[in-house]
Every structure is written in C-alpha cells, then in structure tokens.
Amino acid sequence: MNYYVNLLITIIILIIGTGTAFFIDQFTKQLEKFISSRYLSFTIIMILFTLMTGATVMTSSLGGWSIMDTAFISSLCFFALGWLTNISKRAGINQASTAAKFITNNQIKYEYESASSSNKSPYFIASLLFLVMSWNIILDGLQLIE
Which of 7, 21, 52, 130 has the highest count of CB atoms within 10 angstroms of its CB? Predict the structure, then answer.
C-alpha cells in the first residue's frame, strides 16, 4: 500500500510542477513588457529547468527509485509536454492569424507565422535541455558501471 501512496504523491507533484511551469510560460508574455526578452527568456528557462530537476529529485526520493531511472522517465515526460506546449503555441498563433485573414478578407498578409518559425516556447527549451543533460549523465553513469 505504501508503494501506491508514493506513486500517487509522485503523480500529484508532477501535475503541480507542470501546472506551475505552464503558468510561468504564460506569465512570460506579461513580463516581456518590462524586462528585456533576452534576459527574461534565459531566466525563465533556468527557473523551469530547476523546477524539472527538483521534481525529479522529489519523485526519486518519494518513490524509492534510483535517481537515474527517475531522470530517464521524467525527462521523456517533460520533453513530451514541452513538445506539446510548443505545438499548441504554434497552433494558437496560426489559428489567430488565419481568423484575422478571414475576417479582413485577406488584407493581413505578413502577420501569419508558420509553424516552422524559430520562436520556441521556454518550456520546450528547458525540457530539451533537461532531456539532453539527464541522458548524458545517465549514459556517463552507465559507462562507469561497465
């Protein structure tokens, strides 16, 4: 029974952490009015990366799993959420641009942003950074074991 309680607490921590990360990602838009986007982006990415690392360590300690196993699984989960966040951000931009073009009878021509543009979500960048770093640490740890 203790295992299932730890698993439930782990899922709750991941849901709260993800909700916090999405809130920070959306709150960034409001802060860009006051802070330079370059510094703000870097700060938000580091905050999200720290939240991901903290959630992984908490999950590992509560679940009784090794940190390497937990980092392997949680990095995949965070990356999937980051990827979905980035896709949904693009879809929102494209949907708003398409609606504006329809309403104005195609008068707005240059505000349409394609899904392949380089403006990435801070959550996506932080999750990609977490995935790469955790997998590098895991692979280095596996080489040391051999």
Answer: 52
Compute CA distances 64 → 42, 56, 82, whole Å: 33, 12, 26
Section 6-28 average pLDDT: 74
The residue type at 78: F
Q: If we measure between CA atoms, which residue out of 28, 62, 70 comes closest to residue 48? A: 28
Separation between Cα atoms, residue 32 and residue 10, nearest integer Å: 33
Cβ contacts of 117 within 8 Å, gap of 6 or more: 90
Find out whether 21 and 123 touch, Cβ atoms under 8 Å.
Answer: yes
- Amino acid occupying residue 121: S
Instruction: Render 79-142 in DSSP notation, one character per residue.
Output: HHHHHHHHHHHHHHHHHHHHHHHHHTTS---S----TT-S---HHHHHHHHHHHHHHHHHHHHH
Segment 81-112, tens digit of pLDDT: 878 777 777 766 666 666 666 666 666 555 55
Rounded to whole angstroms, the Cα distance separating 124 from 78 reads 8
From CA 62, how far away is CA 43, in angstroms rounded? 28
